[in-house]
Amino acid sequence: MTRIIEFSGTVLTGPGTEHHGLWSVDGRLTFRRPAAAPDLILDGWVIPGLVDAHCHIGLGPGGDVPERLAEEQAATDRDAGTLLVRDAGAVHDTRWIAQRADLPRLIRSGRHIARTRRYLRGFAVEVEPGDLVEAVRKQARAGDGWVKLVGDWIDRDAGDLAASFPARMLKDAVQAAHDEGARVTAHCFAEDTLDDMLDAGIDCIEHATGLLPRHLPRFVEQGVPIVPTLINIATFPDIAAQAEVKFPRYAAHMRRLWERRAERVREAFDAGVTIYAGTDAGSVISHGRIVDELEALHAAGLPAAAALDAGSWAARNWLGADGITEGASADVLVCAGDPRRNLATLHDLKNIVLRGEPVR
């Protein structure tokens, strides 16, 4: 084990706060210089390990994956600077990852909960409305404090997006998760689904492509964040093209949602809605793309420092994980330049340190 690491460059303890003088001693950060000489000196701009707040380690295009592939997914995320992952639903039981000191920290949410035959085959626990509350209780107990609902999906009879569960059932389901000590997040593409979720007391919204100006005050007042997953939303035109012949209304709807993607995120940011960064890696999106998502948020109108905050300090605080504080686990990145000014520097990290050990 590398007992003492000295970080000789500028340490960013927040998006607007700098510090000089940081060490890792036996895997823990300290601002106090140790008596012994360091085993390793790393120079550069230091930030906490990045957070992917919507990621699927242990999930592939067909659902479950072998443990070997789940390990590769986690390592790919780690090597891109993601040292903390909020799982957003996986079939594979990934509890073993917590025993691996060389893999990112993982906050699990159990399996997706979807309406019967209303989601990707092999991904979710599929239930009818009457069984929703019990399914939520079960997944709350199976995860690490999060439950993932599929809030809407294409209804083939209607030929368009439609809510998965009646609004009255959602309220009971969210309350059941809260009773179990878990928070609830939901996959939401459509506009009206958001009203139902806010009425139910949801804790987070994934994608939020249907976000309209009428929703913004409620998101702010209720303190509900969004995880836009913009690099996933970039696939909507392809989805629409595939659906065009059989479901033209759905295809047109998906294109409209895609067209407003940047406008929606900027309106939310300007209104004070909290935004976190997530890639949706694990099905059609490859792992290791958290920096692409930060750059997409910046391109949508967030200042570079705010985009970085969405995948770093703020995200860690939201998930109850340490940043760069006295005694925190030494899970940090070393950059060649100031990433608040130039996110591209995150594509070529000088060093990755996880639990006090250099990964590279």
Give the topology.
Layout: E1 4-14, E2 17-25, E3 28-30, E4 40-42, E5 45-48, E6 50-55, H1 67-79, E7 82-87, E8 105-107, E9 112-115, E10 124-127, H2 132-142, E11 146-150, E12 152-155, E13 160-163, H3 167-179, E14 183-188, H4 191-200, E15 204-207, H5 216-222, E16 226-227, H6 230-233, H7 236-243, H8 248-259, H9 261-271, H10 290-299, H11 304-310, H12 313-318, E17 332-335, E18 351-354, E19 357-358
Helix pairs in contact: 2-3, 3-4, 7-8, 10-11
Note down, in words, how this protein is organized.
The chain has 360 residues and is an alpha/beta fold. Helix content is 31%, strand content 24%. It contains twelve helices and 19 strands. The chain has helices spanning 67-79, 132-142, 167-179, 191-200, 216-222, 230-233, 236-243, 248-259, 261-271, 290-299, 304-310, 313-318, and strands spanning 4-14, 17-25, 28-30, 40-42, 45-48, 50-55, 82-87, 105-107, 112-115, 124-127, 146-150, 152-155, 160-163, 183-188, 204-207, 226-227, 332-335, 351-354, 357-358. The strands form six sheets. The chain has a four-stranded mixed sheet with strand order 3-2-1-4, with no helix packed on it. The model has no long low-confidence stretch (mean pLDDT 97).
